[in-house]
Batch of 2 targets.
Target 1
Amino acid sequence: MTTHTASAPPGAPADLQAEFDARIAADQRIEPRDWMPEGYRKTLVRQVSQHAHSEIIGMQPEGDWIASAPSLRRKAILLAKVQDEAGHGLYLYAAAETLGVDRADLTRRLIEGRQKYSSIFNYPSLTFADVGVIGWLVDGAAICNQVPLCRSSFGPYARAMVRICKEESFHQRQGYELLMRMMEGTEEQRRMVQDAVDRWWWPSLMMFGPPDAESPNTQQSMAWRIKRDTNDDLRQKFVDMTVPQAERLGVTLPDPELTWNDERGHYDFGEPDWDEFKRVISGSGPKNAERIQRRRAAHEKGEWVREAATAYADKHSARKAAA
Amino acid sequence: MSNDTNGTTSGAARPEWPLYEVFVRGKRGLNHVHVGSLHAADDHMALHNARNLYTRRNEGVSIWVVRAEHIAASSPDEKDPYFAPSGDKVYRHPTFYPIPEDVPHI
Ligand SMILES: [Fe+2]
Ligand SMILES: [Fe+2]
């Protein structure tokens, strides 16, 4: 239920804190009307709204290809996929609203550049092979990130993640299948796939965030169980999952250091360019300005529609009241 | 509400579309279950949006929407008076009644 969060009555914060801590320790869920520490609420608002923004902005790189998809089948699939991402954004805005913030305000923060979204969506999608690689690698990385969040301590966020994860597997599989078809095609098509893999591999690894040593909030978030694994652990898991898929597909992942380490039982891999990551996340990626500009334009062009719907609803409720 | 794009209505505090809670009956024989919320201008649009947002893959056979402000909820600190009866009236549960093992189908 979406109702505002209870705040600590001045009398007994110690009891409330103890009850909260006990819930977390027992791996129970915190629900919107429960008392929660202000830091927990703030961290969640930031995490959930940035996640929502990422889904919404994430429609753009693939959306660019809907009109020029090579077949009706691919167009229908891509349309359904992009529509799902819009849905993911809305599930997450709804979860954020249970923390006492308001969706219109979050949208404003996004289009005014006051809140971040995933750095991955600031790269261009240059060919149709990018659509396949985004599904395979970007949605693949998103799945790695999101599956553990289905057990987030905050109930509405965990429930939104369950819905989202159910839909992500279609996203990843349609991408991989698209790439398999292209790899069966001409030499030029295979080159397109390899080129897209070369461009998206490193940004995909960056989706898990900075290395653990430079991720100061991880400790607290893991204690609160709103993060269940560290960035580096998730990155490793993603690499381990993806290498055999790349081999089967017949593409090369652009990392000369990528080798199986028998002792660790994992793949070793190179370090992403963290300076590039910092540049892109703080606004200077190839597409940052365009992504925000387009989101803002869509919002502003929708203004008259929102107003007309409100006017229509007002007129009808007035008529009903009069009758 | 973006500031003053075109001054059609009163301009200042243009109200947001209200919040609706959405309940879906997954299949015949089950109760409607709360699945999340959305914003819509009126009931009709709320149903339409709920259909597109929460049931894109046969997740339901029936949808209820209700304005969030119309829901009355028990509050967490009322836990005792509200939920105690089920705790102390153990005789409401079948396990309260010991039945010998050799009595079938019970
Ligand atoms: Fe998504
Ligand atoms: Fe996705």
Target 2
Amino acid sequence: MEVCQRCKKEIAIIRSRKEFFCNKCFTKFVSLKQRKRMMGDEYYRNVFKVAYNKDGTHEVGKVVMGFDFQSSCLVALDIIIELLREQYHQHGGRVGFTLDIVSVYQNNKTLNHFKDAWECICSSERYSNDRILDYVKIHFINADTFYHKKNLMQILVHNINFDSMALDWDEKYNYSIEDLLKACPNRNTRNDFWNIIVQHTVKQFAMQTKCSVLIWGNSMTKLADQILGLVIKGRGANIAASLDSESLDKAYGNIFKNLYPMKDILLSEIDAYIICQKMDSLLVDYTLRKSLIISDEDSKKENVNTTLIKNMSINELVRKYYEDMEGEYSNIISTVLRTGDKLQAPTKYLEEGTIPQICFICSNAIYSNPSVWLNSITVDEGHPIETEEEKEYYKQWKESKMGVETEQYLKLRDYIWNNGDAVPLCYGCTINLNGIKGKNVIWPRNTDKELQDVLNEYQINADDK
Amino acid sequence: MSWTAPIDPVNKKPLKVSQLCEICHCRKAIIKRPKNLQKICKECFFYVFETEIHNTIVNNKLFYKGERVAVGASGGKDSTVLCYIMKLLNERHNYGIDIQLLSIDEGIVGYRDDSLATVKRNQKQYGLPLEIVSYKELYNWTMDEIVAVAGIRNSCTYCGVFRRQALDRGAQRLGINHIVTGHNADDMAETVLMNILRGDVARLEKSTSIITSSSGSPIKRSKPFKYTYQKEIVLYAHYKKLDYFSTECTYAPEAFRGTARELMKNLEGIRPSCIIDIIHSGENLVLKEKKKRIVSNQSEQQAKKQFADGNRCERCNYLSSNKICKGCILLEGLEKSRASVSIECDSANDGAARTLRTLERLSF
Ligand code: SF4
Ligand SMILES: [Zn+2]
Ligand SMILES: [Zn+2]
Ligand SMILES: [Zn+2]
Ligand SMILES: [Zn+2]
């Protein structure tokens, strides 16, 4: 039996980063890592700490957190609650900030799941002995609000030059997330759109509540998935923005900063924390990784993702790769994260004095025109028709269902090209759209006045620089 | 040049509409393009394959009229298609370049000797002059000998450093300043992934450059296949019935590269465009200013301190940022171990390398 290397007293039950920990020391190890990120720089310290004005009143920071009821969010919340509790006791009933947590759900089934899980959290002994949850409010948001009461447009990608144009969509107000996901050709595109929608919904909430910090519960592991995932999806230009916790979120009105307090904690460590703290009953639909628990040697081999590779999304495949590599090349995850942190936006591709356009779908900055790039490397015309036989086949094709479908696409394309307006898309979204049948998607037009104002403001700011 | 058109189907059943090429809609599709899964006919495939490479050459201004160019020829599929395509496009589009073949003989029995035979046949088929530079003549070591003393695990480290120099020296000998290599999109994407997984920041920004040159070197390298899928190169070689050598080098590639390759293969299964997607990302990976400035300042200062101009290796006169070039350092190490090995057993020949190979495989 090993002894904990921190306190040198207790028996170690966890082994992580080649070090042995007892229950208590491990909990402290994880929680300190998160707190360091929360108190790391002045901006965040000012939001989270209990700050008094000269007259004795005190400011209460406003914090929002995206919440998916998975282990990382749960641990992040647990550590935040512990911090609130500490503040409450040390400052005679005062806390430094309040927390609004936002869960985006797709249908009633997930909503009920989430509600039950929240009920479970509220009534658990861990949080119900005092009134600490008074400072935490949960909001469930239906993902379909993304389409609700908005003007919709149909965005289409040109099959030959990869440009994108859009036209108002007739059946206004009558499109749902389900329709969108059904149109996706594979899990990867589906996950991409879903993540874009969830992120947008949470950020919009954060903007509307005028919070100062938006917390994302992503573990180091998940961030590393994202970084490599962005590279693989052709979105490498946006890695820097996706990790940025230093600047205010420009696309959402320069109101809040995005914070990743779990950035230094591996997912396996987060899961081990859950096990140590006996919090597993609070999770929804989640299989814990037990790989760091010493007594659980047998379980080391579990959690093998049994999904067929071809049914995985890119991020899931990346995760599988990391897991397969864990033994031999153990610090690959932190290496990827460190590399990601060294990147900046490729503004060198912008013309002097111009600001990047914003992708109409994912709201990311576009540094180089994807259609120009794709055009330069892809040829979509072929060898001419030569013989009578070939002419005959071409005629048959034109009259066939496939010919008609293509014809329909071409008609729609020409119509939109004549009547619509240009909508800039980033490379990743262009590729996604190109893979959808009919190469188009229905998306809300941002007529939301607030966001429009925000965009205007953003453009002026960026221009001034 | 002549190539025989692949045999037309003998019993001509009428085609179904669903079998037709997705570009011209009038001939039978026989290839699914790995790049975008488009099903196309042979004629259209040849057209898009050749035109895309031509576009890459023109868009990146790879050549100027009258330029003399050495094509790195190994006899493998990439370089064989490269030789063929370079000659074809040069004639078709009137680049006005003068092409020579340049081969490196690493001295790997059972691999390079056979593939060099292919290069020699290519030379005749395409009517292009050929220059062969061997490790033995340059370094007095063959790869087989190197593996015998340094072990199979390091084979590619030695081989890579030596090949770089050998190509440069070969080009110099020909009085040529431009080497064209057959690196394809897959190689490039793999390199981008590897640099990220390893955190090799120094190489990250350059990993997708289509033209590279070591600082101070008059010799540049370019990669016209930067956006060309390996699978399409294989298909092209197959349908054009090109004569190439398909055996892989007997020394295994580095283990870590193997894992990146496996990951790429799986990714391609989910999203075939991922190879160019990764290259697109690679072109957009830019390091933060601060760090970069410090690094470049340092290296500038270093450069100023140590070499006024010329930066050449004291021993072999090859371009080097250090007093002694990497090749000479590796050679020095090799000479030392050769001394000790030859005492133990008299085995500096390729037979021993073979035995070692077998042993290493067995012990696995
Ligand atoms: S695989 Fe390695 S040893 Fe073989 S030729 Fe290539 S670099 Fe040289
Ligand atoms: Zn302890
Ligand atoms: Zn986008
Ligand atoms: Zn065709
Ligand atoms: Zn030297």
